[in-house]
Amino acid sequence: MGENLIKNIQIENKNNKFLPERLVLQWSGIKYTFSKRSLIFFSFSMPILGSLIYLFLNMSFNSWVTAIFIKQVSYLLDLIFNIKARVVINPDLIAIYLPNSSRSGRVLTSCYGAEVISIFIGIILATSSSHDRKHDMNIIWRKTKIIIITILSTYLSYMFRIVLMLAFVHYGMPMHIIHDSSYYLITLTSFI
């Protein structure tokens, strides 16, 4: 499959070896055409958009997202594992306390995957559509669906990560081991 893609690029763009005037990709029998400008736009706008989205999610007036997230985690802990966790929400601190444990946790925006969501939305928004008009008709609807699916899947996977992590901590596993390993595991599966 990769060989066909390279052959298609070479056949369509014989004149310029390094960066063709138009990059042509073929996927499932459909050709998608991209210009140099769209590749440069993607390279610069993706990190900028991702950073701006993350900064927006990390602002103090968006702490309601974190509060809703930790309340849902507390509810799932009670529902699945019968652990009565106590949630404390203040303007400066959002924390969850486990019963019969000296462990408590401060909840940050990274707990619900704000970084991963920001990166994915930056990639989705910065990816330009093909120059072929027949494939460009539903681009806004397709990007909207992809963004919604990305946000929901990342949010749910991080929620179950926190629920399982707190359940393991409640039953005696050291916090530093389960926190670090589950973070890298869930981030890897989110990118896959």
TrEMBL record:
<keyword id="KW-1133">Transmembrane helix</keyword>
<feature type="transmembrane region" description="Helical">
    <location>
        <begin position="146"/>
        <end position="171"/>
    </location>
</feature>
<feature type="transmembrane region" description="Helical">
    <location>
        <begin position="107"/>
        <end position="126"/>
    </location>
</feature>
<keyword id="KW-0472">Membrane</keyword>
<feature type="transmembrane region" description="Helical">
    <location>
        <begin position="39"/>
        <end position="57"/>
    </location>
</feature>
<keyword id="KW-0812">Transmembrane</keyword>
<protein>
    <recommendedName>
        <fullName>Exosortase K</fullName>
    </recommendedName>
</protein>
